[in-house]
Write a structure and sequence with these properties.
heterodimer, A: about 375 residues, mainly alpha, ABC transporter involved in vitamin B12 uptake, BtuC, 16 helices, globular, B: about 400 residues, Rossmann fold, six-stranded mixed sheet, about 40% helix, about 20% strand
């Protein structure tokens, strides 16, 4: 697979030899965007419209949303790391978990369990959502991806896009196209006050979930036999198979881990935004994919940092960069800012924030 | 909307535009001949799926009830309603209109529900010679005196927001006694023009519009926006957008310091039980600025329509536009009767141009009130009203009781 890349020049090699028009343009673009961002940020801060507590709130919102992106991004990264394949249906796998969680949540909310035994209820919601996501992820792998694993070209990618549509339309057909409201947990509106700053408990909970999920995943990949097998398959599938690694088992394990992450992400998402909808997986899926690329796809800390970073930019960016420039309705441009920053980072570091260390290790 | 979604949408728009050109050549016959026994085909397009489905389905039912009251026939021909789902988006409207325009049997079109649909679809239909009668598309530009010639074929049996915005501003200023407001639109023509009209009048009345914000209809994280709005300390927030985004705003406002007790005023896009499902308990206290559609403000036969709706579908109307949709069909029927020619063997010949001209000469007292069209296609007058949601149980939804009419 890397035969062709050995014969071509590595990117950047030609740039060192001579400067061409494109390099000049790219540098001008970087400087222009950086100048606009700095000018906007300084102008906003000079205006003093937002207090410190409000900036803290923005950052909290961003990190919470970023945690959800990060959890979904971990699923992309797991599968990419092992199979070198982008599982575009991952966002929709997350959506199936949210629906499964919704049915449990509305059940326990109606019979009062959510109020009397909140911990038990939450554990049940998580368990069902994760089990559903794992089951859907494994079924997807077995029936849609495995038959194409050794086929050349973009067949698996196209297949993944197809799976995404199948999942969306199946859920739409089964449960309707309306928006469903997720029941409120009793501690949803609870707030901890730290030195005058308000920290909603649910935000801490979601961030805690994301960080512990990442740590667990990291330990699995780096400290267990199965993790070693995953890393072996990631480096060279054929050689790993010759060394006695069961590649199918490793792939199934990677999808199961990715599915479990999607399950956690789906419940976290629903806890914060309290809506489930058949199309809800699409936008976070695309953004989490962006986050995984931003962090360096295939890297676990990369997915985490990428997700947090993207969430933070989306929440803080419009107020910080655009308010000072006098742009009205800055929040309409939130996605544009998020993806622009993604592009800028990739222009500076095509391999993503954490991509290089891994590439070096492989070489 | 995400980047990939936008690329996909623009590709789709390109493809449908191409389709529209290719069919325009084949389906621009100036008359439709309906052989004896063949049905008169009336096209329809509304949002029939997604978060705003209740809005469109309700209007489709209004047309169905009108057809039923005609015993299913116009000019002794059975009537067939060909309804398309246009998904409350410009792309959906374009696709639906292209399908209807390419069907040579369609004599006229009723719908749509959303102004974004109408903005894209009405020109495609009119270029194929088809009139369309909007049933809840209320953007002022659609029947403005300076509208483009492409929109000549568009009329509506529903009010124009040109009146809605100023009326809302007056209520917020005079009755709610708010001094400072913030408006939020979602980038669609309906919400953008509505918030602009309301802000203009509110400023004119001496109030202060602290800022005019915007969200994307698919946004879920509204807290940064709400935190920003909270710094402006508004007394009221005017947010006449659609169900999913409104629900997020209502829920997240409850958790935003400074906004817990601020009045939120929505518009026609959230006058459906879907908002109760989507917003849950947060819907209680939410105002709806919407024309007075309670029975006392409608035409004299409106109670009959309500009853036949209940009998036919087993529930009360889910949006306020059933009567408008009913009147659209009546208007089209009367214009057909006036303009179409019946030949000796029973063949009905509908001249599309004559049908269009006839629509402007019709006057009648309809289910929604008096119907008579101005030369710009505005056939219905505006009656302001304000409602408030009192209960978060979907089954209690009935315009007038929950949300309860509180003004006038």
């Amino acid at each position: 697979m890397s035969d062709t890349s050995l014969t071509t020049l590595p990117p950047g090699a030609s740039a060192r030899k001579r400067i061409n028009g494109i390099d000049v343009f790219m540098w001008a673009l970087r400087c222009a965007v950086a100048a606009i961002a700095i000018f906007g940020a300084v102008a906003t801060l000079l205006q003093g419209r937002y207090s410190l507590a409000q900036w803290f709130d923005f950052a909290m919102f961003g990190l919470t949303l970023g945690s959800v992106y990060a959890l979904i991004a971990l699923g992309y990264t797991m599968v990419y790391g092992v199979l070198r394949m982008i599982n575009f249906a991952h966002g929709d796998i997350t959506m199936t978990g949210a629906f499964a969680g919704y049915f449990v949540a509305s059940g326990v909310s109606r019979n009062g369990l959510l109020a009397t035994h909140p911990v038990l209820a939450i554990v049940a919601i998580f368990a069902v959502a994760m089990a559903t996501c794992i089951a859907v992820a494994l079924a997807t792998e077995r029936f849609a991806y495995r038959p194409f694993r050794n086929s050349p070209g973009q067949a698996p990618l196209i297949c993944a896009i197809g799976v995404s549509f199948v999942l969306e339309q199946t859920v739409r057909g089964m449960f309707g196209s309306g928006v469903k409201s997720y029941p409120l947990t009793t501690w949803h509106d609870a707030v901890i006050n730290v030195a005058g700053l308000r920290v909603p408990v649910v935000n801490l909970f979601v961030m805690g979930c994301a960080i512990s999920a990442m740590v667990i995943l990291y330990l699995i990949v780096h400290r267990t036999r199965m993790g070693m097998a995953m890393r072996a398959v990631s480096e060279d599938k054929a050689a790993a198979a010759l060394m006695g690694v069961d590649v199918d088992r490793v792939v199934v394990f990677a999808f199961a881990l990715g599915g479990a992450m999607a399950g956690v992400a789906s419940v976290c998402y629903a806890l914060i935004y309290q809506q489930v909808h058949f199309f809800m997986g699409f936008a976070p899926g695309i953004k989490a994919f962006g986050a995984a690329v931003l962090g360096g796809i295939g890297s676990i800390p990369g997915a985490m940092i990428g997700g947090m970073f993207l969430g933070l930019i989306e929440a803080v960016g419009p107020a910080l960069f655009l308010d000072g420039l006098g742009i009205t309705a800055p929040y309409q441009l939130r996605d544009a800012i998020g993806f622009l920053v993604l592009l800028m980072v990739l222009i500076f570091r095509p391999q993503g924030l954490f991509g290089e260390a891994m590439a070096k290790k492989r070489a | 909307m995400t980047l990939a979604g936008q690329i996909f949408r623009s590709a789709l728009a390109g493809a449908t535009a191409y389709l529209a050109f290719s069919v325009a050549a084949s389906a621009d016959a100036e008359e439709v001949r309906i052989a004896p026994g063949a049905p008169i085909v009336i096209g329809g397009y509304w949002v029939l799926s997604g978060g705003d489905a209740a809005l469109g389905n309700d209007q489709k039912r209004g047309v169905e009830l009108a057809i039923k009251d005609l015993n299913g026939t116009i000019l002794n021909h059975p009537v067939r309603l060909l309804a398309e789902d246009s998904q409350c988006s410009a792309e959906g409207g374009q696709t639906a209109a292209t399908k209807l325009a390419s069907n040579p049997a369609v004599v006229g079109v009723i719908g749509p529900s959303c102004s974004s649909e109408a903005t894209a679809a009405a020109p495609i239909l009119w270029n194929a010679g088809l009139v369309s009668i909007g049933t809840s598309a209320t953007a002022p530009s659609l029947t403005a005196p300076d509208r483009k010639a492409d929109y000549t074929g568009f009329l509506r049996t529903v009010f124009s927001d040109a009146d809605q915005g100023p009326a809302d501003a007056k209520w917020i200023h005079d009755e709610l006694k708010a001094k400072t407001v913030v408006t939020i639109h979602d980038g669609s023509p309906y919400t953008q023009q509505l918030t602009a009209e309301m802000a203009k009048t509110f400023t004119g009345l001496g109030g202060k519009v602290a800022s005019q914000e915007a969200v994307a209809p698919t946004d879920v994280d509204m807290r940064p926006l709400l935190a920003r709005i909270a710094t402006e300390k508004p007394d009221a927030i005017y947010v006449p957008i659609f169900v999913p985004a409104t629900a997020q705003i209502l829920k997240q406002a409850k958790q935003t310091p400074g906004l817990e007790n601020v009045a939120f005023i929505g518009g026609g896009g959230t006058m459906s039980p879907d908002i109760i499902d989507a917003a849950g308990d947060a819907v209680v206290g939410f105002y709806g600025a919407f024309p007075d559609v309670t029975p006392e403000a409608q035409g004299k036969d409106y109670p009959k329509l309500l009853k036949s709706y209940q009998d036919e579908y087993g529930e009360a109307p889910t949006s306020g536009f059933v009567a408008n949709a009913y009147d659209a069909l009546t208007l089209l029927k009367m214009a057909l009767e006036k303009s179409a020619k019946t030949e000796s063997d029973g063949t009905v010949v509908v001249d599309k141009k004559a049908l269009h001209d006839a629509l402007f000469t019709i006057k009648f007292s309809g289910m929604s009130g008096e119907i008579s069209c101005t030369k710009d296609g505005q056939c219905s007058a505006f009656k302001p009203g304000i409602y408030r949601y009192e209960n978060a149980d979907r089954s209690t939804f009935a315009i007038g009781t929950n949300p309860k009419k509180i003004y006038p």
